[in-house]
Amino acid sequence: MNFSRFEKNQLKHLAAKLKCCHDELKFTLEDIDDSYYEYSKYKKDKDGFIKTYYDGTPKKRTITPSKGALKKIQSSIKRNILDNVVIPIHIQGGVKGKSNITNAKAHQGKKYKFTTDLQDFFPAVRTSLVYSVFLNLGFTNVQANWLTRLTTYRYGLPQGAPTSPALSNLSFIPIDEKLISLNYSHGITYTRYIDDLTFSSANDFKDKIPEILSIVINGGFKVNYRKTLYCGKQTITGIDVGNNYIDAPLKIREKAKDEQLSNSTTKPYTTYLKRIRQTNTKKVRK
After folding, report:
1. Residues 171-198 pLDDT 10s
2. How many other CB atoms are there within 10 angstroms of residue 56's CB atom?
């Protein structure tokens, strides 16, 4: 890759911003594809259980982590750029202090709930969206192009890179804003936990669902209709949401009971159950 004098100055400024070595940054930009490796991993639900197909076959996803100098540079991009961006309150995943629990809590007490899921979310965040994120953060065209090259793989966000969660959140914000505009005018609460979209209201809003889905699809993303549900009581990001409380689903409560009878010094399910229930003002029945 031959750099003009202008590009050399731009690269020098970017390296200073990232607090990394100029030569290392230049070398990495010249050899991106060799900085990733792939492996398969079982898909798990919000409670940590392995997902399966109808025939019982475990579901897998391809993970593409970065390595070496690229991983180091991506960590620097996350630390020195992405971590400094103020994230809107409706985004509950991949944000410090937020979790699937805080996401579910936002919908407690709402009679009508609608949940949907985005298919292959990270790969669906195309390079053009990532490029726009960096432009909006104030980087020049050439710097935004380099940052996009450093954080995308095969035209999308790589599953397993340290920058991907934050960039997925920031890339989806234009769609979030359209959803918020629609929801605000109809009294609907909206939150997003990575690729899980949740809507709730005290009033029936079933007639708004086609418009909600249209906004998502027109934004270039696919909806997982198998995980699209509109009803009253339901599980939101792995949490049972009621009128006056939230609670862990039955399988988690049973795991916690088993832990109480064991001699194990670590009780992750019990700890998780306590974290959920401590958000309630009213005591949940065991």
Report:
1. 999 999 999 999 888 899 999 999 999 9
2. 6
Write the burial class of residue 103 (CB in 10 Å: 0-12 exposed, 13-18 middle, 19+ buried).
buried
- Separation of alpha carbons 236 and 59, rounded Å: 21
Question: Distance between CA atoms of 159 and 62, rounded to whole angstroms?
Answer: 7
pTM, whole model, 2 decimals?
A: 0.88
- CA proximity to 280, closest of 252, 249, 243, 253: 243
Q: What angle do CA 281, 241, 247 make, to 5 degrees?
A: 60
Calculate the alpha carbon distances from 212 to 115, 126, 232 in Å.
Answer: 11, 21, 18
Q: Tell me 285's DSSP state.
A: P
pLDDT digits (tens, 9 = 90+) for 231-240: 877 899 999 9
Q: Are 135 and 209 in contact (CB under 8 A)?
A: no
109 CB contacts (<8 Å, ≥6 apart)? 243, 244
Taking the C-alpha atoms of residue 2 and residue 94, their distance in angstroms, rounded to an integer, is: 37
One-character DSSP codes across 7-47: HHHHHHHHHHHHTS-HHHHHHHHH--GGGB--EEEE-B-TT
